[in-house]
Write a structure and sequence with these properties.
It contains 21 helices and eleven strands. The protein has helices at 10-21, 33-42, 59-69, 84-92, 105-130, 139-181, 187-202, 229-232, 242-250, 267-272, 306-349, 357-371, 376-387, 398-401, 409-416, 418-426, 433-440, 462-476, 488-497, 505-512, 515-526, and strands spanning 2-6, 26-30, 47-50, 74-79, 97-100, 204-213, 218-226, 236-238, 254-256, 278-285, 288-298.
């Protein structure tokens, strides 16, 4: 069988050529649609494997012209632009199969074999039709033979159609998952979304994603869904252990149809598994392995198959890119936060009385948040907002901060502007958007008498109410140019006196019962 491979990337052409030569096919390659058409005119090819997007004649147009030149030629589309629309359009123009890049080697070989087999059947049927003129006494036998051939071909075409519909559904699913995960940059949200999509499409009892912690050199289960999710989430495992370790070493997926009869596992190992069938696929980006994705036991009770492996590997390639993007974004975010915090530290360093203030506000805020049951995500927002709450003081004249006398109205208005200036400084940093309103509002009062927006009560976010208590407490217990620091009990009495007016009573009570306050009270008594 003679096959023509067309792709504007020479390495793809040569890769497919080497893969299929080993199967006994005669392979020619072309790097453009125009050149391919000239070759088709000169040679009798049985199969055309072409890319979709190419300079000059694109894949669909090439297939259309090739079939005009040689109606018997069959076509497989291999493309990195796999969408439902391109798949439907390709089938409409006579494409026999549609394979998404990066393609699976086994899938490509099976597609070539099936397509050429279908061609052979079609040609045989055409020949039968040509020979179908009745010939004396053999007509009845001939009609029976023709009927049988047509029946067989109909069954085979129905099977091919079934596979094409299945492939179309897979492409639709892959497209949906790709759109979903590439729009998310938060790692935990990304991984959870990915498992949601997989569980919804494949219907499995349990799934998980294990990422490699390069510092500790081990796997960490970062996402898990299903009946055992809470048991395994956060668990760690050495890189050379278990199925995940085998996947990493081999850099290829492992399919177990039934663990009870799988010779790759010893009897001792089999007894450790409470599952029947599972797939573990690597998350690979370039030469780097980021982790593995696991799916365990179909809800239907059926075993996983090669089609499931190919589907999961395609999803894994999308997840790998999204995971790396999330990591890079996190590094960029941390670098930007570090830079802004350095500015805040430099600002405090210019004022001896403000040194360490932001760190103290962050420390007290975190302690209050713990008492009040604030989520980890919101505690991180509160931490960053606390460390940066006074960043708006950049540009305010130093003499105003260090003035020993009472500030005049103009000077006080300048000081009051720092909360709004802080919002303006932080606003361009999109990843800090959740903390901006707390930076702006850290001088608001619970009764609505603060600034800049005179918000109060429940209109004032809880994290802002926490920060106002922490900020005021540290200000009262720190030395200023115009007064000595208050003792802790005096500062707490002041917080309670202003409870319900300047401060949220619930936040004041939470701070009063916090561990950090008890520790600092004990230290004050000692020294």
């Amino acid at each position: 069988m003679r096959i023509l491979v067309v792709d504007d990337e020479p390495r793809i052409c040569h890769l497919i050529k080497e893969l299929l030569k080993g199967e006994g096919y005669q392979i020619d390659v072309s790097f453009s649609g125009d050149d391919a058409m000239e070759m088709i005119k000169r040679c009798d090819y049985h199969l055309l494997i072409t890319d979709l997007k190419m300079p000059g004649i694109e894949g669909i147009e090439l297939i259309e012209k090739a079939k005009q030149e040689c109606p018997e030629i069959r076509a497989i589309m291999v493309t990195g632009y796999a969408t439902v629309d391109t798949a439907v359009q390709s089938l409409r123009y006579g494409v026999d199969d549609f394979i998404a890049k990066p393609f699976n080697i086994t899938e490509l070989k099976m597609s070539v074999k099936q397509t050429l087999h279908t061609r052979k059947i079609a040609l045989a049927n055409i020949q039968i039709l040509k020979d179908s003129k009745p010939r004396s006494l053999g007509v009845k036998s001939y009609e029976q033979k023709l009927s049988e051939k047509i029946y067989i071909m109909s069954e085979q075409l129905a099977e091919v159609n079934k596979k094409l519909v299945q492939r179309d559904n897979e492409l639709d699913t892959i497209n949906e998952i790709s759109k979903a995960i590439t729009s998310v940059l938060d790692m935990d949200e990304l991984l959870s979304l990915c498992l949601n999509e997989i569980n919804g499409k494949i219907k499995v009892k349990h799934s998980s994603i294990m990422l490699i912690d390069e510092i500790r050199n081990e796997f960490v289960v970062r996402a898990s869904q299903g009946h055992r999710s809470m048991q395994v989430l956060g668990k760690t495992q050495k890189l050379d252990e278990g199925v995940a370790g085998r996947v990493v070493r081999g850099k290829k997926p492992i399919l177990v149809k039934d663990i009870r009869f799988d010779s790759r596992f010893s009897r001792y190992e089999r007894s450790d598994y409470k599952t029947k069938s599972f797939i573990s696929a690597p998350l690979i980006l370039g030469q780097n392995i980021l982790g593995v994705i696991n799916i365990i036991d179909k809800i239907s009770g059926k075993s996983f198959c090669e089609t499931d492996v190919n589907f999961l590997c395609t999803i894994a390639s999308q997840v790998s890119v999204a995971v790396e993007n999330s990591r890079l974004y996190k590094v960029l975010e941390e670098n930007c936060i570090t830079m802004v915090k350095s500015l805040a530290d430099d600002l405090e360093a210019q004022d001896l009385y403000m040194s360490g203030h932001s760190q103290n506000v962050s420390k007290y805020s975190s302690s209050i948040a713990s008492v009040m049951g604030v989520s980890d995500k919101e505690r991180n927002i509160l931490r960053d907002a606390s460390l940066l709450h006074d960043i708006g003081k950049i540009g305010i004249p130093e003499f105003i901060f260090n003035k020993p006398d009472k500030l005049n109205n103009t000077e006080f208005d300048t000081i009051k502007s720092h909360s709004v200036r802080g919002e303006e400084i932080i606003k361009p940093l999109g990843f800090l958007k959740e903390g901006i309103r707390h930076i702006r509002g850290h001088h608001e009062h619970f009764d609505g008498s603060g600034y800049p927006d005179r918000l109060g009560g429940e209109d004032l976010p809880l994290l802002t109410r926490i920060m106002t208590v922490a900020d005021s407490f540290d200000a009262m217990t720190s030395e200023r140019t115009y007064r000595q620091p208050l003792k802790i009990d005096k500062a707490m009495s002041e917080l309670k006196r202003m409870s319900g007016k300047q401060f949220d009573p619930k936040v004041v009570d939470a701070f009063a019962s916090s561990e950090i306050l008890k520790m600092e009270s004990e230290l004050e008594m000692k020294y």
